[in-house]
Write a structure and sequence with these properties.
With about 525 residues, this protein is mostly beta strands. It is built from seven helices and 33 strands. Strand 12 and strand 13 form a beta hairpin. One of its GO terms (cellular component) is cytoplasm.
């Protein structure tokens, strides 16, 4: 497969036939699209016998998605997005090419970046483009022979949603304009109610899909965000992007709770492993509840769906009788697969009440690394901040970089002396920048008048307020906390598994599936599953 062509993608569907061989696999490579029986860890597919193969001219497939609701042994509905903007609905079992959407490219001329069926729907699907627009389609409707006319339905901070104005119902039903630059990927929450979008402007935006409300946002450390996924219980979102980091965001608290550094280049896919995400009782004797709950906790321990129900129980109990670990993975352009564990100490940092009341920041108990010298004000254990400005407690870190003292933004003293003194070159550059920023904050506001979201000059055609968010403005805010303000995860494993950039990571019950830009699709058996 040529380097320049679109990323290789893989989609799975189970057609529930009686033989037990119900898994089907679709992948695109270059101009071609293939559909095969998938035998998992048992046997490689016979590449000479695809159920369906298509070669496209003038446009390349970029992404695809099966409708799991309607799939049968006789018929499956597969959506395919293309580099020139069209979307095709095909049935690779019946072989009838059924429908083409945006055929004349009147709706959007840019590349399709992501296409997904709306969860629980047999006919609605959502398509994202590199234009930054998303469109909601219904397979039953036509696209019309003229460019659509739109009417504003809802507008918010850096997004707008329009309905299609026409006498008879036509596609698209809705047009979403989100952020700046390409919309790289979106993902529906497990319950289908929320939609997480990541864009080239570096923002994660999470919407309530039905009410079209913005639930929360996050900004990458730098560069665009390329991929996004939800934890099986819908409580956490993980993103990956051009900052080489994976970022874990709490859906409930709308804040970054951890970052992971292991990749040496852009992160192209993030995915949770629902089969390894575990919930364990710390002491079964303490458990109180109905017998059904009790059985649910003890049987079917390795099933993803019961994991979901246990996770919801786990998170609803304040006494926290069970412990939880989320496992997720990531693959990147550095050809590496990383596996990560999200554990209790990151999810629920324990903070003694007495400490929380006195505004005293307790540093983590590890002594500063050798050679940091005694000049680090953060190394004496406590850094006192002025009463009344309660500072968030420092979070546990799974690596040994020394903490710098945290002071509130109002104080004149430079925040990061500690880091400079301890000679952490990585942060020393940050701290100098930080010091400058603090002193010039007032001049900034006076002289540069950053066109922030408050400038409401909306141009008439595109009603989104187009304002570049200055990265220096978001760094150090809840949108994008500084590196030293959130725990930094290290990968459990980080392994080179390909020769070209990786583009696929899918967790299945007995294996993990990856694919790289060369067109190799690999099935990795889980331990004990061969």
């Amino acid at each position: 497969n040529a380097q320049g062509s679109n990323p290789v993608r893989v989609s799975f569907v189970n057609v529930n036939d009686q033989s037990g061989n119900g898994d089907r696999l679709c992948f695109n490579v270059g101009r071609e699209l293939y559909f095969y029986i998938y035998k998992g860890v048992r046997k490689a597919a016979d590449l000479s016998k695809p159920i369906d193969k298509r070669i496209y001219k003038g446009t390349q497939p970029t992404c695809h998605d099966f409708n799991h609701l309607t799939a049968t042994a006789e018929s499956v509905s597969l959506l395919v997005g293309f580099s020139a903007g069209q979307v095709q609905l095909i049935d690779p079992i019946k072989k009838e090419t059924s429908k083409l959407f945006n055929e004349e490219r009147l709706i959007d001329k840019s590349r399709v970046t992501c296409v997904k069926w709306v969860p629980g729907s047999e006919s609605l699907f959502l398509v994202a483009h590199s234009s930054g627009n998303m469109y909601l389609y219904n397979v039953e409707h036509t696209c019309g022979t003229t460019a659509p006319h739109y009417q504003l339905l809802k507008q918010g901070e850096s997004f707008a949603v329009h309905t299609c104005k026409s006498k008879s119902t036509r596609n698209p039903l809705l047009k979403w304009t989100v952020g700046e630059g390409a919309l790289n990927e979106f993902a529906f929450s497990p319950d289908g109610k929320f939609l997480a979008c990541v864009s080239q402007d570096g923002f994660l935006r999470v919407f309530n899909f039905d009410s079209v409300e913005l639930h929360g946002t996050m900004k990458s450390y730098f560069g665009g965000l390329l991929c996004v996924c939800w934890s099986p219980d819908g409580k956490y979102i993980v993103t990956g992007g051009e900052d080489d980091l994976v970022t874990v965001w709490s859906f409930v608290d709308c804040r970054v709770i951890a970052r992971g550094h292991g990749h040496k280049s852009w992160v192209s896919v993030v995915a949770f492993d629902p089969y390894t995400t575990s919930v364990e009782e710390s002491d079964p004797m303490e458990f109180s509840g109905s017998d059904e709950d009790f059985q649910d906790l003890h049987f079917g321990r390795d099933r993803a769906n019961s994991t979901q129900s246990r996770l919801s129980k786990r998170n609803s109990t304040d006494s926290r009788p069970v412990s939880v670990t989320y496992r997720f993975g990531s693959v990147g352009q550095d050809t590496q697969l990383c596996l990560w564990d999200l554990t209790e100490d990151i999810l629920f940092p324990h903070q003694p009440l007495s400490r929380a009341r006195t505004h005293t920041n307790v540093m983590n108990a590890t002594s500063p690394p050798a050679g940091s010298g005694g000049t680090n004000p953060g190394s004496n254990g406590n850094s006192i901040t002025t009463p009344g400005n309660s500072v968030p407690p420092p979070l546990p870190r799974s690596n040994s970089l020394p903490h710098s003292a945290v002071s509130n933004a109002g104080s004149k003293s430079s925040v990061m002396d500690g880091a400079i003194a301890s000679g952490v070159s990585k942060f020393a550059t940050l701290s100098l920048h930080d010091r400058k920023e603090r002193h010039h904050e007032k001049d900034h506001k006076r002289n540069h008048s950053m066109g922030h979201i408050s400038s409401k000059s909306s141009d008439k055609l595109n009603l989104v307020t187009k304002t570049k968010t200055d990265p220096a403005k978001t760094l150090g805010t809840p949108l994008c906390p500084r590196m030293e303000d959130v725990p930094l995860l290290e990968p459990l494993i980080c392994k080179k598994i390909a020769h070209e950039r990786l583009t696929v990571l899918i967790f299945l019950e007995d294996c993990i599936v990856t694919a790289c830009q060369e067109g190799f699709i690999c099935t990795w058996a889980r331990p004990g599953k061969v």
